[in-house]
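Sample log: Corrinoid adenosyltransferase.
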Amino acid sequence: MKIYTKTGDKGTTSLFGGTRVPKHHIRIESYGTIDELNSHIGLVKDQKVGDQTREILNRVQDRLFTLGAILATDPEKAILKSGQERLNIPTITEADIKLLENEMDSMNEKLPEMTHFVLPGGHPSVSICHIARCVCRRAERLSTALYEISPFNELVLQYLNRLSDYLFVLARKLSKDLHANEVKWIPEKGS
């Protein structure tokens, strides 16, 4: 299989179902940002995060491929003439969201209470996790904009929202595990 097809040379790309849209279309921005997020999750996973976290992040990457496929499907061509769904893959479920919530609860039990906002940083692994969190928030913003135009499974939005929360808690856990300084944001007093 050749990697290059030349079909996008004029600035368009195909959705699942064959519909061609501009490469700057909100749908492409949405699933392209999911792809970017998946790459950042891979970088987080390559840090010293522990086996359990690595397993969770593997699961997250799998779910992100599913999200991308959902967003890359032309809603008008999502159902085949046979009545079957074009995407023949497991979808996002409440269990996927619950897994992230359970992981956050487990990590939070071992973390000091948050009394202030936390400045990203303190260790490269923590910073990488915060970057992934920010990309996740951007993916969520783009996906919610797409959802207003062309609704899809709401669990996609819930999953992205929960994933950004998970990445924040994971960054705090990494700070603790790596003995990094977690810097609280304390606004300067105005004059």
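Observation: The mean pLDDT is 88.
Observation: Residues 12 and 23 are 5 Å apart (CA to CA).
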